[in-house]
Write a structure and sequence with these properties.
The chain has 466 residues and is of the alpha/beta class. 35% of the residues lie in helices and 15% in strands. The strands form 3 sheets. The protein has an 11-stranded mixed beta sheet with strand order 1-3-2-8-10-9-14-15-13-11-12. The model has no long low-confidence stretch (mean pLDDT 95).
């Protein structure tokens, strides 16, 4: 097995090969770090690479394996963490403002991953404070899409998606406040799952009215299911975490025969590039081969979404306004513009919009009573130059990147599980994602639908040429 092939082995297989001593944890991590050292200058997926610590952890994993000690489900398997979590590594949030800060404790999911033997190899890049869907920040510069260097890899979990596509390990943690797991998966041609809100505990909770979700970015659905099994479940530090223990997702990835699936090509509010629409429509049609019933339907609840997200996106980022006096010249100009847009928002106005949001959310759940899943594009565009906020053929705006991302944020507000699965490539060779949305709490159903489509139209064997 070549070093390159080792780096693309799914986590489910790596864990088994390590457990049966067919792969050495130490040699595996060494091969992975060698690949990262060679290609990271092109991709720029890491805000902080903990190579020495990863090697030390691999040595310990090897010793435990050889001694016959009890090992966890992810023993010796590498994972990356977004640049906002994990102790003993400098925290940066893609900004020059908090650079070098050290968290005093791991987030709950990191403790759970470490307890199962996973090796954290570093923090992945993100835009400044996660404000945009474009893979660049004032601190780390551009994180490139592995399919076309210099192009957008999606965000805010930018480095996680790029690392997954580049073969920088099988498991990558992302967070998603308006599509920040699904957009990187779409742009980089990998799998990303935003679970139901509360499925994966989060601490500390960000001040975004409970829109931020934690989940996996992986190359295969099975790897995402395994990671979700490990990190899901209630935690005392997150009062919003769900009481239910995680299902045995990995062993339950059977098909979607008999399920009722709705399709909306645009939610009635979104502009979609023709090359995206064509690939998504073809992917949706394939679900009939899986025994599901497909119907293109209207989604009347969606009409209020654009106004709601633009209000809340700016209003929540207003919490960063105190940085402007000292740091404005060092901050992303788009973030500054977004913060300033909410300068005159009153508490009364915020509460009025929040009441409208609750009605919007209720309408989504009411609509879902008639459907098992909703299929849409994951985003309206394929990757474009990452120094831009939107493609050249789209209208410009000081900060509103959301114009090409109208499909994801509704389910951050409503807390439904949603995933992006690769469904093809544009004529220019850029990946495109199909979004699968399920009823709230039906994370298993979304994984099953994603796995069924993956079996029908596999993608993990497709690798960017780096």
């Amino acid at each position: 097995m070549t070093p390159q092939n080792i780096c693309f082995i799914p986590a489910v297989e790596v864990a088994k090969l390590i457990r049966t001593k067919e792969i050495s944890p130490l040699e595996y991590i060494r091969a992975l770090l060698a690949r990262i050292a060679e290609l990271e200058p092109k991709v720029n997926a890491f805000a902080y690479l903990a190579a020495d610590r990863a090697m030390n952890d691999a040595k310990k994993a090897e010793a435990a394996l050889m001694s016959g000690a009890q090992i966890g489900r992810l023993h010796g398997v590498p994972i990356t963490i977004k640049d906002s979590m994990a102790k003993n590594m400098p925290i940066q949030h893609g900004s020059k403002i908090p650079a070098g800060d050290q968290p005093i404790e791991d987030a709950p999911i990191i403790s759970r991953l470490r307890d199962e033997g996973a090796i954290v190899i570093g923090r992945t890049t993100m835009p400044e404070f996660g404000w945009t869907g474009v893979s660049r920040s004032p601190l780390t510069g551009i994180t490139s899409n592995p399919w076309k260097l210099g192009y957008n890899a999606g965000a805010s979990s930018a480095g996680a998606g790029a690392a997954a596509a580049a073969g920088f390990g099988p498991l990558h943690q992302g967070s998603d406040g308006a599509g920040s797991i699904r957009m990187p998966a779409h742009f980089s041609g990998v799998f990303g799952l935003k679970p139901s809100f509360g499925r994966v505990p989060n601490h500390p909770l960000p001040a975004s009215d409970m829109m931020n979700h934690i989940g996996p970015i992986t190359r295969t659905v099975a790897d995402g299911a395994l990671m979700l099994e490990v990190v899901a479940g209630p935690h005392f530090l997150d009062h919003t975490s769900l009481e239910a223990e995680p299902a045995k997702y990995l062993t339950l990835l059977h098909g979607v025969k008999g399920r009722r699936i709705a399709f909306s090509p645009d939610l009635g509010v979104a502009r979609v590039d023709p090359e995206i629409a064509e690939l998504v429509k073809a992917a949706v049609a394939r679900f009939t081969e899986l025994g599901a019933t497909i119907e293109e339907v209207p989604v009347p609840w969606a009409k209020d979404g654009p106004e709601l997200i633009r209000f809340f996106w700016s209003a929540h980022l207003r919490s960063l306004a105190h940085y402007l006096r000292k740091w404005e010249a060092e901050m992303d100009p788009g973030l500054v513009a977004c913060i300033k847009d909410a300068e005159h928002v009153s508490v009364g106005r915020y509460q009025e919009m929040r009441e409208r949001k609750m009605v919007y959310v209720a309408n989504i759940h009411r609509w879902f009573q008639d459907w098992d899943f909703l299929l849409t594009p994951s985003a309206s565009v394929a990757a474009f130059p990452a120094e831009k906020l939107m493609p050249d053929h789209w209208p410009t705006h000081p900060w509103d990147w959301i114009t090409w991302a109208e499909f994801s944020y509704p389910f951050n507000m409503s807390w439904n599980p949603a995933a992006s699965v690769p469904c093809g490539f544009t004529p220019a060779g850029l990946p495109v994602g199909l979004q699968i949305v399920g009823k709230r709490f039906d994370d298993l159903g979304v994984l099953q639908a994603a796995a069924a489509f993956e079996q029908l139209q596999p993608w993990a064997d497709k690798r960017p040429r780096l």
